[in-house]
Design brief:
By secondary structure, the protein is an alpha/beta fold. Helices cover about 35% and strands about 20% of the residues. It has 2 domains: about 110 residues, Rossmann fold (3-Layer(aba) Sandwich), CATH 3.40.50; about 180 residues, NAD(P)-binding Rossmann-like Domain (Rossmann fold). The radius of gyration is 21 Å and the shape is elongated. It binds glyoxylic acid (GLV).
Amino acid sequence: MINALFSAREALWPVYRPILESAFADQGLEVALTNKTDRPETMDYLIYAPAREDDDLSIYPNLKLIQSLWAGPDKLMRNKTLTKPMARMVDPGMTQGMVDYVFGHIMRHHLDVNRFSNAKPGEWLLDWGPSLPADRTVAVLGIGALGMACAQAAHDYGFKVLGWSRTQKDGAPFTCYAGQDGLKTVLEQADIVVTLLPNTPATENLIDGETLSIMKDGAALINPGRGQLIDDDALLAALNSGKIIGATLDVFRIEPLPADHPYWHHPNVLVTPHVASETRPSTACIVVADNMARVERGETALHLIDPDLKY
Ligand code: GLV
C-alpha cells in the first residue's frame, strides 16, 4: 500500500479525490489517499498545491516524490524545507486552456481590438488596413510544453512564428532561437510577443527597457507566464510612448494586482486575474497517477524540477 497526501486548498479535495482514486485504479496502484495525516513520516507521495508557502516539508522525511499541481514551481522552490524531488505539472488540459487564452489574445491584437474599443463615438477608423496572419510575426518566448503548444497553434493558423528558449529546440515547424543574440533576432521581428517562461533568476526582468527598445514600434505583448518576467516601469513607459501598442497581462509581481496599479487604468492594457489557464483535474490526475506509477516501477519521474535551474 502506498500512502499519498493531497495537500491543497480545502475546496479542491472533494473534486480531486474521486478522480485521483480512479486514476490510481487505472494504473493498478493501491493508494491510501488522504488530505490529513497525523503520521506525516509514513507518507510516500505529496500531491501538492499548497494554500501557504511556508509549510514545513521536513515532517515528511520519506517522500519519494512531491507532485505539484502547478505548472510553475517558483513559489514552491522558495520553501527552504524542500529537499525531496519535485515534479511540476504538465497537464494536457492546462495546455489546451493556455492555447485558448494565448490564441484568443493573439487574435485580439491581430484585429486591433484595443484601437476600436478605445475609439470615441463617431470615430470611424477607416485607415485600418487588415493584415493577414502571414503578415504578422508572433514570437513565443519559452518553448516548453505550454509555449510549444501556443506557438504551434499560431503557426497552424498561418502566423509567422518565431520561438525562443534557454536551450535550442529542434524539430519545431517554425524557427527557434536561443541565447541573447537569438532573443534580439526574435524581438526585432515580432509584432506580437508572448512570454511563457518560468520565473527564475535568469528570466527575471527579461522584458525591460533594453529588450523593449529592440522591439518593433507598435508591437503587442501577452504575458500569461509570470509577473517577474516584466520590468513594470519599463513596460508602462513603453506603453505611454506608444512603442508598445497593447499588453494583455495575466500575472503580476503582486497578486491580486492592487486596484491603484497603473495597469488597471491604462487604456491599452487588459488585465486578467491569473486565469489564463489552470490545472484541470480530469487530465491532471492521470498525469499524477502515471508519475507515481513510474516511481513505483523504479523509473525516474517525468518533469522533475532541476534545483539549479529552478524549474
Ligand atoms: C499557474 O500559474 C501554475 O503555475 O500552474
